Structures are given as C-alpha cells and as structure tokens.
Amino acid sequence: MSVPDHIKGIAAATAASVLPHLRFENSILVLSHMRSVSTALTHVLATHPEIWGYGETHVSYTAERAPGRLWLNLLRHHRSGIGRKLILDKVLHNDLDRAVTPAFYRAKAIFLLRSPAPAIRSIQALSAAQGLADWQSPEQAARYYLMRITRLMHHWNHFPPERRIGMLSENLMRDPEGALVRLSQFLPVSHPLENRYVAEGRAARHGAGDPTRSQDLTRIEPIDVDVDLSLPVGVDQKLAAQCIQAYLTASDLMGLTEHALNDRG
What is the CA angle 182-210-103, rounded to 5? Predict the structure, then answer.
C-alpha cells in the first residue's frame, strides 16, 4: 500500500526540522535529459564515501522540504549510505523541476548535455524496448529533448556560478578521468572521485537508472565518440533544427561551445 503524498510531505518536513543538515546546500543534483550517460555518472558519484544516492528518485522540487523527501526516499530504498554528508539525486523530467522552490538553486548542480541525434535515437530505442509510450516515436523523443534542454537553460541562469558546472556527455564518455577531475574540484568532497562503481539499479529499485549497458559495468569505459550535429532521423526538419539550435545555445550558455562545435578542440 502506497503512502499518501500529504503523509510523505509531513514526514519530509519533520525530517528536515529534526536533521538540520537536510538542506539544498548539502544536495548534489545531476540535471540532464534521458540517455545522457547520467546513470553511469550518478553511479560514480554515489560510490564516493561522502555522497549518498542511487540515481533518479523522482522526488519533486517544488517545496523547500524536498531534501527531506529525498532523504526519506534514500532511507527507504538505499540504507547503506546513512551518515554521508551529501545527498544525491538525478532530475531528467520537467514535471519534477518546472516550478521549483527558490532554495533549489542553493544545491550543487551538474548539468550534462548530449548532442541531439544520438540522444533522441537512444531515447526512442529505450522507450520502445521498455514499453514507455511517451517517447516511442522520433517526434515524441525530439519534443521531450527540446523541452528538457530549454528547461535546463532556465535552471542554469538561476544557479549562482559557483554552484553550477556544465559538461558534455561526449567528453565524459571519451575522457572520464578528466571529467571526474573537474567534478572533484567543483564538489565539496575531501578526496577525489574515482572512476568505479557498483551498479545496483537493476535488482534494487525502479528509477535507479539505465537498465541497459551501465548495469553490466563497474566504471565509465572510455569510448571514442564525438558530438553529432546531424539532423535526428525521422524527425520533422523544423523540429530537428530546433533541437540542434537549443543544444548549441545551451552549450554556449554553459561555456561549452568550443567543445560542441569542435569536440576534439
């Protein structure tokens, strides 16, 4: 039997009042879109002894008590991280962060962007394989991608510069060690992130992340991949062009334009 939302809200508010460290200032949020390699990244982050999380919890960030709700979710599904100083979540959908509390922007935010053609193709393929009706056509996947990139730009503009960092998925895939060095310098951790993880998602819980390749690995394996600015296959040309333009605009906003236009820099 599921617990009613108002009961969860009361419990979250109580947890936040009893445990003062449950604040956005002690939260790490991976803000991205589906099929961006965010699952592998959150696996790595959650393996760090100071970070407690498992992937995508589907917690809504409309209220200031959201860290309490996240903490309760982790306590329910992932007890092994109790006592770690930072809590982690991954947010991939606009319904969870469309009308956020102002406190949301006090978290540490990692923005992760993947170029449109491979992202849209992968969203569609995963949706078809998993029976997810919302994104099974290229048009549906492209519209989700466009709306999500637009929302990510909105959030980027509201986070203070010292509390946000932008990354390209292609750079993470090609040079995971270098990407993790950047993240280690950005995050309030006492020692660097390591490129290793134990993926528990498939057996442990719904929402833990990508149910495909990353679950069979123990690290982010380097792969020779470039940004792909070709038109997404099967998408109306106008919509496809909007997706590419949104990606380039977001890359420029986050200071990633040089990598997006010339990925080998």
Answer: 55
